[in-house]
Amino acid sequence: MKKLLLILALLAVLALISAFVVVRIVGPRLVSVPPPSGEPLGEYDSPRPEVSLLALGIVVPVGLLDEIANAEAPLTFEGGEAKNFHKRIQNGAYTWDATRGEIRFHNTGSSLAFTVPFEGKATLQGELDASILKIPIEGSADVAGTAGGTLVPEVQSDWNVNPNFTPELKLDKANLRLGQLGGIDIGEFLGGSLGAYLQEEAGKIAPVIRKRFDLRREAGKLWSQAHLLEQVSDDPPLWVRVTPRRFLLGPVDYGTPEQIGLAVAIESETYLVNRAPAAPELAPLPELGPLPEAAGTDLRVPVVVSMTELNRMIAEEDFDIDTGIGTRIKVHGLAAEVGQGGYLNLKLDLEADKSRLGRGVAGSIWVKGRPVIDYEKQTLGFTGVELTVETRDKLTGVAAWLLEGMLVKGLEGQLRVDLNDYKEELDEEVREAIAKADLPEGIDVSLQNLEVTLADIYTITRHVEGGEPDPGIVLVIRATGDMSTRVSSLDFQRDKNP
User: Fold this and answer.
1) Are residues 299 and 361 in the same domain?
2) Does residue 94 surpass a pLDDT of 70?
3) Cis peptide bond prior to 236, omega within 30° of 0
4) What is the DSSP letter of 180?
5) Between residues 467 and 476, which one has the greater pLDDT?
6) Are residues 297 and 368 in the same domain?
7) pLDDT classification of 264: cutoffs 50, 70, 90
8) Which of 202, 205, 216, 265 has a 20 to 30 Å separation from 456 between CA atoms?
9) The domain containing residue 425 runs over which residues?
10) 45 lies in the same domain as 108
11) Which residues contact 76 (CB under 8 A, 6 or more apart)?
């Protein structure tokens, strides 16, 4: 009996030894690596300001210019002057009055032209020199023709508008009957006198248009609205602050016959703050700068992604890495923290099968890698991945070689986090903001070719300059598109606000 018990005891000891050998010698090496040491220091202390361009194409139908000019310009005009109108007339003088017709604008493709027909009567008087005596005479003439001209408006850097007006006048009828002098064609005479007055009146149409489309006033509204401070996050509390720096203006576009276009843009700095909103200090409207042709809206907005949020995304990632030497590495349970010098420290759970070169490895290790944006796939990836010092110290030479050479390559090739949700949310918010914008009646804003992309990523130590350390990452989201405004009524132009 004692012999049997001794044999059973020996068998139990052998079983324990076998299990120990299988686990500690034959089985995978179990590792548990502590997090990397050192304070988390982002690539930047706080989010960098991003330069954005809000470009807006303003379209004004030519028919609206007709409406404004006809509403503002007087229907009748009159004048006169003391001036001899014939070589045999002394003490000559004339008066005239005329009524205009409809003012019509048209786009020539390189300028803005307008015409206005008119008709009226001219009364002339003087003294006919009959050698022996002077005979008082008086006569009248019907006059008719078309006044107008071309405008090539040019906005100066100080916001003054030079209309570059070139007048045109055509007299179709101007014949005066004066008794024994017979008929006198006074077209040339009136072309210089009446014509000068008519052109002066026609020239007033340009200031009328300028007054009703007060560019400086409307630009001032846009400039003040560009000073923004909007809360974009509750936890942590964050606001986006937009500070306009430059106002840019492009040349007048005559490319579409039924309208004229004008491109304006505001260049701004966009950055994040974690302080409660305050009334922004409005900068005065600056002088105009030139806007390059085909410049569209290009908004760049920094968005802080907390480590909690990032870890929620990457925790869902798991994949296998085939080393090519008979070993498969299973990776799961990813978690991240801000490291130093622009790197993220990544904790991951893995199971590496036994290779031809040694035992497998199982447990938790740490690697570090620099977050990068895959611009083609629009995903978050990592580059420069390597084992942390703490991980390398915990592993045997063979295991460290296996993981350094194979795991690192696999992580760089396969660890991709889809960030399309951010793009979709911003796309929806931009379109919703335009749809709900409180715009004056008669102004329609549209956004075409909207494209939202991920432009950059980097780590930060704190959310705002001078704030408490709160490491995280910043995604720079870029939204590009073509914004246009069509002016279709007069009501908003009557606003007298500065």
Assistant:
1) yes
2) yes
3) yes
4) G
5) 476
6) yes
7) confident
8) 265
9) 28-61+214-498
10) no
11) 97, 98, 99, 100
